[in-house]
Amino acid sequence: MPERASGSVLVAAVRHGALAGLVATVPMTLVMLAGHRLFEPRQAKLPPRLITDRLLGREASDEAGRWRALAAHFGFGAATGALFALWSRPSAGKGVVFGLAVWAVSYLGWVPGLRLMPPATRQPARRNAIMIAAHVVWGLALGGVVAGLARRRRARSSHRSAMVSRF
């Protein structure tokens, strides 16, 4: 029985993390779009679009390409959110640290490693500032949502335990 309870808690944490990652990708995307419009009007595509196009081997400028990039961007946000939720006692502060780690591992690690984009060290400072700010916003939202969902789950669980103990 304890294994099942432990497994269900793990599944709930991952599910909550994926949901929180998805939700947190909304304000992140808004920061990216605003920063791009304000500071990089000549740059044609944001990193999620460049990465998606290059991963799929398509340099599309069509509407379908935008939707593919958005789906990949939100999917990555959900997947990394699920990983974050496995962290002991998630919080908004830990979310910010995690968001910065995701930026570093991505833009200094696997993205240039797969030759999808040059590393952040070879990107314009404005682009790095936009992407770092977006990841801070994502992490803050992620940590806050995961922590809130965890509190809610614990409150429901303790309420159920109190109800059962009355019998």
Question: How would you characterize this protein structure?
Answer:
This protein has 167 residues and is mainly α. The protein has five helices and no strands. The chain has one domain. Helix 1 packs across helix 3 and helix 2 (47-56) packs across helix 3. The longest helix is centred in the C-terminal third of the chain and has 41 residues, at 125-165.
How do the helices and strands line up, and which of them pair or pack?
Blueprint: H1 2-39, H2 47-56, H3 63-84, H4 92-113, H5 125-165
Helix pairs in contact: 1-3, 1-5, 2-3, 4-5
* Strand content range: under 5%
The oligomerization state is: single chain
SSE order: HHHHH
Low-confidence stretches: 1-5
**Tally of individual domains:** 1
- Our Rg estimate from Cα atoms comes to 19 Å
Write a brief caption for the model.
By secondary structure, the chain is mainly α. The protein has helices at 2-39, 47-56, 63-84, 92-113, 125-165.
Considering the chains and any ligands shown, give keywords for the structure:
single chain, mainly alpha, disordered N terminus, 167 residues
